[in-house]
Specification:
The complex is a heterodimer of chains A (about 260) and B (about 425). Chain A is an alpha/beta fold. Chain A is about 45% helix and about 15% strand. The longest helix of chain A is centred in the C-terminal third of the chain and has 17 residues. Chain A is globular, with a radius of gyration of 17 Å. Chain B is of the alpha/beta class and about 425 residues long. Chain B folds into two domains: about 150 residues, 3-Layer(aba) Sandwich (Rossmann fold); about 220 residues, 3-Layer(aba) Sandwich (Rossmann fold), CATH 3.40.50.1100. In chain B, the strands form three sheets. Chain B has a six-stranded mixed sheet with strand order 3-4-14-9-10-13, with helices on both faces. A four-stranded antiparallel sheet of chain B has the order 1-2-12-11. A four-stranded parallel sheet of chain B has the order 7-6-5-8, with helices on both faces. In chain B, helix 4 packs across helix 5, helix 10 crosses helix 11 and helix 14 packs across helix 15. The longest helix of chain B is centred in the first third of the chain and has 15 residues. The chains are: A alpha/beta (about 260), B alpha/beta (about 425). Chains A and B meet through helix 3, helix 5 and strand 6 of A and strand 2, helix 1, helix 8, strand 11 and strand 12 of B.
Chain lengths: ~260, ~425
């Protein structure tokens, strides 16, 4: 059982929905980023999605693209991202960390070496945007063998014919992408999301969290109420991008978490 | 080789879209169902004589194919060695080989009922070809072009707009071809249901590398019969040479000869200011290593952390940090040889083509010609080189003038064609 499995079991026992927060590792710089990440559990975050910076984030909108650029310009790397997680783990052995990003930095390091190092750094799960089930041999299967959750994205275009394939070789939770599009672009609609979550529920017993297009406490509450949790990324990252102090960023995160937890 | 099916170089890719270790389908889940639809549709079209009849008709009457295979006599005499033929794909409608592929993809888009076409472009040749074919078929066309390229390829931007396309200057990242491809993929993921992404080269997720290669293979197929016509039945080229950015004109020329072991195959990458540790070049094979970008595994320019580097080349059309996956495979298997040519060498070749043959070449094939200049003098008279003259140089005269120190300020803005 990973920290992710334990967390969702506990949330279920408490009758609570999950609040998942995304931040880019090293944005705007290593120290500030570490301070924000360390503050996330206290702000009510159940699962941390830690963005791994990449030069070519094909599925991300301008907000997260710029966050990645800020991080890379500040010298962030995969190595430093793992160091940030290690640093976080010194005080927190409970909050799951999901590393989210693109395959090339991982491939470049070598999958086996990466999995070793990521485990040691206290990473619990992976979301790799450009690895669909068709490429499971690359990282998904080795990661699960190494005891790490490999979290799948399901989308509005994942039809019933394809859904069973997407729900194979996965664990932890399912990340439902509420819109066809990039991060931070359109707004999610709870009315559209509810039947989709129900559809995916028929194909899996895993918890389903919903992300993309959630930018306010109200939206987090509305979406969490029709799923097992809500993810917010761009709305938090855009405040970091504006140079808000970590305390202010975390106050906003808390308002989002409270929203999701009201659901 | 051709006798042994298992050793054929022409069977790729496999069912997972792999050429050896290269290729694949590294895309987000949102795009995956569409990619599978596209593959199914292409598989159907590929075996449909009606599809190819329509292609042949358009190639003949709209593009002007077959393009001539031209014996470059003065160039041959000047270099004093191998006999040099130029495959004149620069004479195609829109001025480059790009339209060969665009027609195929647009016919496919029509079969799939897609009404909106998006494309990325570097030098603007693929953008112009896509805008052209969209105008012909009354389809909406959106072209993503790096801001930097919009500035250095102004004539092509104006052409696309005249043809009714919307040209979106890309400012994300550093505003180059790679970023244009990122933004095109972002558009596609957003408008996946009504939009067809017309990729301009033999890269991207499967089935694009194979599909674009198949559409471009008309180049090499024509060379086979045209050379036999001029040099006698059964005569094959001894060497085929083409420039490589993503590698579609090269793949089109090379593919029909892969199983003819007597044919040397040489791809020419853009060496920019020189292939060294400064990385001011676009030579993915000679200066990069395998990685995953834009839907496929292939050789990429990248740093130790797996972050993608910007290419550097005088030619906007070669300015891409990757290369088609089939080239990566041909490189690793040794079936093809890959070399690089610097900006300076390409500029010399550009001028030689103008002065000896009266052909103003694009900067892209100027790279191929520069390598011909290196090898031809040392080859015997009966050695036949076929080089793909894949684009004309009208679009490049401003860039070339600048590098040669020629003041074009009083002629700027005048129509060039």
């Amino acid at each position: 059982m990973t920290r992710i499995d334990a967390k969702f079991a506990k949330l279920k026992a408490d009758g609570k929905k999950a609040f998942v927060a995304y931040v880019m590792a090293g944005d705007p710089d290593y120290a500030t980023s570490l301070e924000i990440v360390k503050g996330l559990p206290g702000a009510g975050v159940d699962v941390i999605e830690l963005g791994l910076p990449f030069t070519d984030p094909m599925a991300d909108g301008p907000t997260i693209q710029l966050a990645g650029q800020r991080a890379l310009e500040g010298g962030m790397t995969l190595q430093k991202t793992l160091e940030l997680a290690t640093e976080f783990r010194k005080d927190d052995d409970e909050t799951p960390i999901v590393l989210m990003g693109y395959y090339n930095p991982i491939y470049s390091r070598g999958v086996d070496r990466f999995l070793d190092d990521a485990k040691k750094a206290g990473i619990d799960g992976l979301i790799v945007v450009d690895l669909p089930p068709e490429e499971d041999d690359e990282l998904c299967i080795p990661a699960q063998k190494a005891g790490m959750n490999f979290i799948r994205l399901a989308t509005p275009t994942t039809d019933d014919r394809r859904l069973p394939k997407v729900m194979t070789n996965t664990s932890g939770f399912v990340y439902y992408v509420s819109i066809t599009g990039i991060t931070g672009a359109a707004e999610a609609d709870a009315g559209d999301v509810a039947p989709e979550v129900a559809r995916i529920k028929r194909a899996t017993d895993l918890p389903i969290v919903v992300g993309f297009g959630i930018n306010s406490p109200e939206k987090a509450e509305a979406i969490a109420s029709v799923a097992d949790g809500a993810v917010v990324g761009s709305a938090i990252v855009s405040r970091i991008g504006k140079g808000e102090a970590p305390a202010d960023v975390l106050a906003f995160v808390k308002s989002l978490a409270d929203g999701a937890h009201r659901a | 080789m051709a006798d042994d099916l298992f050793n054929s170089f022409m069977n790729g890719p496999d069912e997972r879209g792999r050429f050896g270790d290269f290729g694949g389908r590294f895309v987000s889940e949102t795009l995956m169902p569409l990619i599978l639809d596209l593959e199914a549709e292409y598989d159907k079209a590929k075996d449909d004589p009606e599809f190819w009849a329509e292609m042949d008709d358009l190639w003949k009457h709209y593009v002007g194919r077959p393009s001539p295979l031209y014996f470059a006599e003065r160039l041959t005499d000047h270099l004093g060695g191998a006999k040099i033929y130029l495959k004149r794909d620069e004479l195609n409608h829109t001025g480059a080989h790009k339209i060969n592929n665009v027609l195929g993809q647009i016919l496919l888009a029509r079969r799939m009922g897609k009404k909106r076409i998006i494309a990325e472009t570097g030098a603007g040749q693929h953008g112009v070809a896509t805008a052209t074919v969209c105008a012909k078929f009354g389809l909406k066309c959106v072209v993503y072009m790096g801001k930097h390229d919009v500035e250095r390829q102004a004539p092509n931007v104006f052409r696309m707009r005249l043809l009714g396309a919307e040209v979106i200057p890309v400012t994300s990242g550093r505003g180059t071809l790679k970023d244009a491809m990122n933004d095109a993929l972002r558009d596609w993921v957003t408008n996946v249901r009504d939009t067809f992404y017309c990729i301009g080269t033999v890269a991207g997720p499967h089935p694009y590398p194979a599909m674009v290669r198949d559409f471009q293979s008309i180049i090499g197929q024509e060379v086979r019969w045209q050379l036999a016509e001029q040099e006698g039945e059964g005569r094959l080229p001894d060497t085929v040479i083409a420039a490589i950015g993503g590698g579609s004109n090269a793949m089109g020329l090379f593919f029909p000869f892969l199983d003819d072991p007597s044919v040397n195959i040489i791809g020419v990458e853009a060496g920019g200011k020189g292939v060294d540790e400064k990385m001011q070049h676009c030579a993915s094979l000679t200066g990069g290593r395998p990685g995953v970008l834009h839907g496929n595994r292939t050789y990429l320019l990248q740093d130790d952390d797996g972050q993608i580097l910007e290419g550097f080349s005088i030619s906007a059309g070669l300015d891409y940090p990757g290369i088609g996956p089939e080239h990566s495979w041909l490189h690793e298997t040794g079936r093809a040889q890959y070399v690089s040519i610097t900006d300076k060498e390409a500029l010399e070749a550009f001028q030689l083509s103008c002065s000896t043959e009266g052909i103003i070449p694009a900067l892209e094939p100027s790279h191929a010609l520069a390598h011909v200049m290196k090898i031809a003098p040392n080859l015997p008279r009966d050695h036949i080189i076929v080089m793909n003259m894949c684009g004309r140089g009208d679009k490049d005269i401003f860039t070339v003038a600048k590098h040669l120190g020629f003041d074009m300020s009083d002629t700027e803005g005048r129509e060039m064609d």
